[in-house]
Amino acid sequence: MQEIGQLNSNQKNLFSHLTQAPSDAIFAIMNAYKADTSENKIDLGVGAYRTDEEKPYVFDVVKKIEQEIVNDPSLNKEYLEIEGLPEFNKGCQILLFGKDNPLITSGRIVTAQCLGGTGALRVGFDFVKRHLQGDVYVSNPTWGNHNQILDRVGLNQINYPYYDPITKGFNCKATLDCLSQAKEGSIILLHVCAHNPTGVDPTEDEWLQIADVCKTRNLIPFFDCAYQGFASGCLDKDVFAVRKFAELGFQMIIAYSFSKNMGLYNERVGAIHILTSSQDIATKVLSNLKMVIRTLYSCPPAIGGRIVSRILCNDNYYQQWVQELNVITGRIIKMRSLLKNELDNLNVQGNWDHIIKQTGFFTFTGLTPQQCDQLTQDHHVYLLRSGRMSMAGITSKNVKQLVEAIKIVVQNK
Ligand SMILES: Cc1ncc(COP(=O)(O)O)c(C=O)c1O
């Protein structure tokens, strides 16, 4: 008698040709942190907010709306439209482009609810691959998943030199020089604010120069907006680049994430916006975007979209959300100065001014991969080997221990 599961001898060994794929750097750090039993471990890996007690945070306004949704007899589990909830899409447009922006009523913006910022990027680049082609210019460095998504979709990537390791700031001249050589019709992936991993953003004047070169070279802007609210602390100011490019008449694509600014990480809520040249074209773009979504995951899940739309469409909830977001961004900003002061107080070798100059969730510390390894192995501090530190993992209690560890690894250089 054949044993259950005994291999069918006629079938060749199907998956034996596979080699082990590399693990995702950020998830690997998250797991290593979880497995560490030390009481003094510090998690500076993942870009997820932690309270000053090192706890994950769920917005009160989100909890309240979740209850409301559970108790709402008018809701059911029927499929949503392929492009998601209409009130979600409308709310997202207003948040990004601004309440009184005439583009919203023009019908030229196509929006679809997506599975987080990652889902929006994937949908957007699938759409680009099918309907635009062109090389994609990607900042060096960028969020690692950008490279992986583009690779999977099969779009050619070219780096533009974004970060200057000497000044630990934005290298505007090198960026402009590179883009001015780009082939017409290329796509340029731009981080709207709080650049990941560097924490370095162009100034408003530098954005205008980037817009200029995009116009001259006929480049297509593809914005990634994952941190609205985290750079300056002001929702409107943080999306200056998107609003300015829209005002200047660009047709463009924007991938948006609510993971960080509403703390909805595992609900997977985001959006893709495509700003087109006319209402008529927008209708055609939407129909094609829906084809991309239908074949990827059919339609988005409802809960996250309902939470976001209730926040964006209700004045009271909106105010509560902004207040809570301010507390979060305020704590991160405070941690930057605390870290910098402690580094100075302990006379840690080097100049650490960039910690307070950079913005958003991350600081690109300038620590070498070896120093980062040493921080993890000897001091239970978890961060990316690129030297990227999530500021949201620093607290008033762990900052001293962190700085003492940095002092040791910097001296051992
Ligand atoms: C620059 C950038 N874009 C997009 C995302 C995607 O976020 P999510 O898919 O979690 O919404 C992230 C998340 O870390 C990010 O840092």
What is shown here, in short?
This protein is α/β, with parallel strands linked by helices and 413 residues long. Helices cover 45% and strands 13% of the residues. Helix 2 packs across helix 12.
Describe what this molecule looks like in 3D.
- By secondary structure, this protein is an alpha/beta fold.
- It folds into two domains: 115 residues, Aspartate Aminotransferase, domain 1; 235 residues, Type I PLP-dependent aspartate aminotransferase-like (Major domain) (Aspartate Aminotransferase, domain 2, 3-Layer(aba) Sandwich), CATH 3.40.640.
- 45% of the residues lie in helices and 13% in strands.
- The protein contains 16 helices and 13 strands.
- The strands form four sheets. A seven-stranded mixed β-sheet has the order 2-10-9-8-7-3-4, sandwiched between helices. It has a two-stranded parallel sheet with strand order 1-12. A two-stranded antiparallel sheet has the order 5-6.
- Helix 8 links the parallel strand 7 and strand 8.
- It binds pyridoxal-5'-phosphate.
- Pyridoxal-5'-phosphate (PLP) binds next to helix 5.
- It catalyses: L-aspartate + 2-oxoglutarate = oxaloacetate + L-glutamate.
